[in-house]
Every structure is written in structure tokens, then in C-alpha cells.
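Supplementary Methods, section 5.1.

A reviewer requested that the exact input to the structure prediction be made available. We therefore reproduce it here, unchanged from the version used in the analyses.
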Amino acid sequence: MTSTRALLLFAFVGHCALSAACALPEDNRYYARCSGDASCAPFVCDAALGRCVAAGAGEVEGEGEGEDEGEGEGEGEGEGEGEGEGEGALNYLADDGADFAAGLGDGLEIAGDELGMAPGRATAWWESPVVGGGETLRRLSSVRLALPAPFGVGANAAALGVVNERAEYGEAGLDVAALALLLPLDQAPGTSVTGGAALQDVAQAHHPTDFRENAPADDTRGEEGRLGGAVFFAREDWLEVLSTSDLAFDPSGFTFAAWMRLERCDDSEDNAVGIGGQQPHIWLGASCPLAEAIFVVRDDDHANGGSPQGPVMDDGQWHHLAGVFHTAPAEAEELWFDGELAASTNSASGTFLGGFDEGLFLANFPIGLPSDRYNYETQIGLDEVMVFRRPLMPDEVAGLYRRGAARAFLQVRVCAGPQDCGAAPWIGTGGVPGTTFAGASPVAPPRELPPSPVLEGRAFQARVVFDRLSTDVAPRVSAVAFRAEPL
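The structure derived from this sequence is encoded cell-by-cell as follows.
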């Protein structure tokens, strides 16, 4: 018969004041920093940890007898969020105001059971308590960041082939049934662009693409976008979307949308940069050399239509552009800039039923014969390029902007022990320091992490990083969770 002794060591970092008035929960889940017992009353200070703990909480014994070791382990383990499960899995969940208040942070606002940014702040961060300890070595197996509406997932996005984290792009109620093209352009920052999965269409049609690099010295590369990675197109390079005959639009209208970051326009050409095609002549981007936002619409006969123009955009910052063509209540083209209607023009009737005769181009607009297609030099970043076969409503366009303008990301620390977390890097996708995990709808399941690389440790911590482009938008989080399983 074997007697088993299970050690559960809880080391949580709290933010409450170090005084007798510090309101530590009775289940001892969250612990404040300390230097002596006087600062922890009615609890005691564990000098080795530098944390307030209940008497004896540093070593919780679970006695049990059985033929196999482990039977009876974990007696006296913690309960609820941040629970310790003896030698078993370790789960952490923060999903109410009290849980969020138990963390550290800056620039935050807790409203009800949601965590968000304080008014006027452009950035903010929140850190969970450190969870875990003892001798058990565990592997981080799943993470979860829940984003409430309007930052959730389109209800039918997954069924239409929108994959991975790109399902998150729209508002919870956005109908993507008419989504004809979605180019996430998730190129890893700093990597050279030569083609590959990052440049592929992930909407249902999966249009093939062809990257054109016209000079080896061109530095088209990946960069951080507003929703994951993005592609910065340098000089004369462009991306062509092929087999676009299905990009025909019925009389009700259509929508083009993308995040764009323009550094300069070529001052020798009156060209357009962004996304568009030759015939029908539809283009969303900037008109050079003035670098003004523009939405150009000409029908199948290269006639009719208009060209609403908006603000100058060559400031090197990310902006969201959307061009909406609709026929009701009146026929018009609308240019939306950063979630607001910038300009609109009336339009004469025309048809857009033939698809694009020469394909759809991103970055440069290489019109004419191939020999003439190398005269347009720009510097532009593109992210989340979308084409809908219907006109989006104003609240839908504003929702697309909000999704990239107000962001919340998750990172984790995997530590050798609680005392080591302060020096451990914050990691995200692939276990790479500095990367992040994206959020998802509150009803989405946790994100299961691949078996490699093995993210193993004895203590763990989560962090949420917020940012926004405008104080008119405010990202919110309703839950943060992770799970670590014994190796």
C-alpha cells in the first residue's frame, strides 16, 4: 500500500492593496505581493514566494492509500477559476468583473463582466494572476479569448469556407453569403513575399492568385496588419487574382473593402493603387499623385458611373476603405473611410455582369499591354481584402472598420516556476515571443494548440493587449481562459 503526498502550490499575482483591508477572496485563489505577515492579514506571507497565502496553502496535502500511486491525490485543491487539480490538468478562467479585477493592468475599464479600455486610452493591457506551481510539469494545450458582439464571428462564415482566424473579421450578425473574395494576406512580418498560402483567397470560390515580382531589388514583404499579417507591396510589384469571371454583380450592387497603409504615390503617373480591375473599371484605393482616397466605378462598357473621392491617405497609417455601389433607394457609389461615409456620387445605369476581363489586381494597376505594365510605382500595405456581391449596409461597413480598429489579443507565459514568470517572454501563435492569439466569439470553443512546439512549464500566466485607432471604438473581452495538461 502506498501513501501519496500531493503538493499544490498556488502563486497568484493580484493587484489589491497590500494592507489588512486587501479584499482577497475566501477561496484564496488570488494572492497579493508581500514582504511580511502584517501586510497580508488575515493571511500570512510566504517569504519564498513573496505572496500572501492562507496558512498552509503553500503545501496542501492530499493523503490517500491505494495500490497505484496517485490515488487520492489533490485533496484540498483550489476551486473555480484558476483551479488546481493536483497532478491533473490545470484550468484558468476569468469571465466576470471580480476575476478581471484580480489581475494587474493599465488603461483598463471593467464594465459589468467585461474588460475593456478606459476612456481616452489608445493602448491598454491586463495580466492574469500566475497560476500553478509545485512539481507537476504541464503542457499548455488550449487558450481562449472571448470577444463579445460586435467583435464576434459571422454566423455562417465557417460554412462558406472562411477559415481559421479570418472567421472573426465581421460583426456577429454580418451575413457573408455574398462574400465573393477574401484575401487575408497573412504574410509573416519581415518575410519576403514570393507566393504561397498567405496570398490565397479563403472565401468559397478560392480564386487562384499570381504574385508578380518585377525586379529582384523590390522589397515586397510581410508586415503587421490590422488583422494578423499583411503584405507591403514595393515599387512595381502586384498580386493578380485569376479566374474572375464569377466576380459578376447583379443589379443590386456590390462592395469592395480593404485595410490600406499608403506610404507614397508615384508623382509621375496619374494612377490608382489599391484593388481593382480594368473592365469593368472598378477601383478602390488612392488616386496618385495626390494620394486621395477614391472609389472608381465604370460598367462593363467602361461607361457610366462616378468617382467619389475622400481624404489624403499617404500618412503611412492604416486606414479602412470600403466602396459600395447600390441601386436602391437610388443608384450611387459611396466611399467609406475609417468607418464613416466620406463621399458619394449619383450614377447612371450600367451592368456589371461580365466579370473582370483582365483579372483583379492588388497594389498596382497594370492596365494596357504587358509591355506597359511596369510604370506604376507605389509603396502600399494591404490587409483583409474583400469583395461582396451585394452592397453592405452602413452598420456593416462600420463593423468591418471596428473589427480592425479596436483590437484585443491574447498572449501567455509558460514558466519553470511561479518565481520565473517575471522573466519569461510573452508568446502567441507557434510559441514565438511577441506573437499573439486572436480572439473569437464567446460561443466558440477554446483554441487547441498543436503538440509542437511543446509549451511546457509548472506555472502559467495570460495577458490581454488592447489597442485602437480611434476613441470612437472600444474593444471588449468577456472571457480569458487556458488549460495546461500534465506531461
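Residues 394-405 form the longest helix (12 residues). These observations are discussed further in the main text.
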